[in-house]
Write a structure and sequence with these properties.
about 260 residues
């Protein structure tokens, strides 16, 4: 078995350290008892975490982000599975163009999408609602789910589906009892990536949020323009902890190596 040499291991260590260092610093700053962004030297404190939960605007924004991300990711999964099945199993005119259209939000800057959606929602008179904010997030995150669903479908052995059909199963039963369980890692990974990207979305959300629908990243941006204190670090540390817990849970259930490549 081929093993990495010392130079490769050193390079990998430096890369991992470079990626993790800012996260570690943020978590340490969140534990400072001081009123400024400083690393704790003599003692640690949870005062800024308490301040976050005592801040009604941050709590409301967190609930908005949670609702929007969960709803948008779930709807994106439904759309991506239907689109993935059509693109993978049917050969029709315009198939490549339709696939490019579904994946186009990955290539369009979110600033442009935000301005375009703001103009569209203004023409429709549909601003200031979580429903329309969720619709904007669905546009952005659906490609993430679609890519993993297509990867799962491309590696799917259809013999099990054919066997179910020959035994008299209907198309819906085959889809629900055979197809979905076989591509479940891809669906789960797509939902996870969609949820994380929706929860962290800032650039587009700035344009289409209202005072009643401010999400957590937008709230953090607004707070940072007014004052910079360790409360921002505490919110960031909480987001890091939630993301890490979700990844650990999924790794225990499915295995991240299967989820991230969309294979069972």
């Amino acid at each position: 078995m081929h093993r990495n040499g010392p130079i490769a291991l050193l390079f990998h260590t430096l890369v991992v350290g470079f990626v993790l260092a800012p996260l570690v610093v943020i978590c340490l700053v969140a534990l400072t008892p001081a009123n400024t962004l400083t690393l704790p030297t003599t003692q640690f404190s949870l005062r800024w975490f308490t301040a976050v939960f005592a801040h009604p605007d941050f709590v409301a924004s967190f609930l908005n982000s949670l609702w929007v991300a969960a709803t948008a990711a779930t709807i994106a999964v439904v759309l991506a599975v239907a689109a993935g099945l059509a693109l993978d199993r049917f050969d029709f005119r315009g198939r490549a163009a339709l696939n490019a259209l579904f994946l186009s939000p990955l290539m369009i800057p979110h600033l442009v999408l935000g301005v375009a959606l703001l103009r569209l929602f203004a023409l429709l008179g549909a601003t200031g609602s979580l429903v329309w904010l969720t619709a904007g997030h669905i546009v952005v995150i659906t490609p993430y789910v679609l890519r993993l669903v297509l990867a799962a479908l491309s590696g799917l052995d259809r013999s099990a589906e054919q066997a179910a059909v020959t035994l008299g199963a209907s198309g819906w039963v085959v889809f629900r009892r055979v197809t979905v369980p076989m591509i479940l890692p891809g669906i789960t990974g797509g939902w996870l990536l969609a949820f994380i990207n929706s929860f962290d979305e800032l650039t587009m959300s700035i344009f289409i949020t209202s005072p009643a629908t401010v999400t957590l990243p937008v709230r953090m941006y607004m707070y940072a323009t007014e004052s910079i204190d360790p409360m921002m670090a505490a919110v960031s540390a909480l987001m890091i902890a939630i993301t890490a817990a979700a990844m650990l849970l999924l790794d225990r259930i499915f295995g991240l190596d299967k989820i991230l490549v969309g294979q069972g």
